Amino acid sequence: MPAKVLIVEDEESLVEILRYNLQAAGYTVVHAASGTDAIMIVREERPDLIILDWMLPGLAGIEICRQIRARPETKALPIIILTARGEESDRIRGLQTGADDYVVKPFSVSELMARVTALLRRVSPDRIADTLEGNGIKFDRIAHRVTRFGRELNVGPTEYRLLEQFMENKGRVLSRAQLLDGTWGRDAEVDERTVDVHVGRLRKAIVSGNQRDPIRTVRGAGYVFDGDE
Ligand code: CA
Predict the structure, then answer these.
(1) What is the pTM of this model?
(2) Using 50, 70 and 90 to split pLDDT, how confident is the model at 9?
């Protein structure tokens, strides 16, 4: 799944420019026009990065930043703040509150795009890498192709997304609920048993002969894709 960027901005024309450019760069875009919406959307959509305007109706940028940093599941979420020219104190307060970067309005869109990519590359490189690798498997997002030790694998669409989620989280145990959210989406009406079925199919697709099974079942917790030994 492409990395998801949340734009929190009330200026509609700017939102459209950012949306257009982010989508052209291959990102999925979600938008919130107010601070209160932003908090809700962060919870529901789980973006990979936030572009956060400082001056917003409802909750101010600084307060959104503080709330995001206070929650364990979002405390590492990358945030770029947009501040108005000359508001030096806002910029400093923003960085103190935990923003990772800032851009002063008016800004060049290409510069902001470069910062989005740089920040994602630093914080979650696997979310934007063209290929993911591990255990002989090469997951090619550009060609939409999976190989293991050079041999092309026949992976169904659901197993493809599942494998992507596993390889983005190498060495980390994922619960069935996390796999459901990440691969099927939060609103999907499938149960956790379905996850087991598709993990089984994925294993069948990626392990042949006496090759090592990179997916380990962790009793009572879920599954983990083992990194290279
Ligand atoms: Ca604004």
Answers:
(1) 0.79
(2) very high
